[in-house]
Amino acid sequence: MASYDTQSFDITHLVEKYRGKKLEELYQENHHIITNEMGEFMELIWQEDNFPCDLKLYLTRKKLLYNLKTVHYIGEFIENRLKGRGIRTLRDLRFLNLRYRESANYILELIKKKDYESLKKNRYIDDLDVGFCFNIGDLLFLDIETLGLYNNAIIIVGIGFFKNQKYEIHLFFARSLEEEIAICEHLKTKILPSFKCFVSYNGKRFDIPYIANRLLYYFDENPMISEEDAPYEISNTKFHHIDLYHICRRRFKGMFERYTLTNIEE
Questions:
Q1: Which positions fall inside the YprB ribonuclease H-like domain (predicted)?
Q2: 262, pLDDT greater than 80
């Protein structure tokens, strides 16, 4: 769940405009009722025809090749010194410096294999740096809305993904608290198995752990972790997760007092 500054929004006119209307009336052409063995819920769907589908994930590979700090014993000072000598990429390091050749070869091999699980263990590689390991169809953009911060029902799950060169937005809406379990069942069986990487804003801290707890509450299992993982201590080990909140805090360090999604969007 992203953090918004609600004081900057005046929705009074919207409340008055749509007072007494049902969602089915407002979204007659793009709503569906999804039914499964746990019940039913409403799904709202939008398709963004003009949304840019070329995210150029391959550029993250190029950036990684220029990051000499991924090699053991190379910090910022040594990296600058090496680049001053014309050693600018990991490939240069492999051929032009015997001391770091073995470690550079190791990183290059991980890049070649697209082994993002091993790459992301490196302290100088962030979530986005391994974006080249995925196709855009592997990405699941995700956000949730709940009735509270702890152990309360999820009422809306918003997801976005690329399909047939178009971007689709789906909202799973619980019209009553009893419909939450059907949404969780849909996530568990239909949505999560189709993707490899989450994209969120502060989802590592909130959305994914929250979803994990609700899945455990209803089904006593969390499909985002392996059998050997502790279910109530770890929420996700199977999916890569690009959390834009942490990336924005690093990229725009010192520029904002609070790194809410509203501030970043503006």
A1: 140-265
A2: no
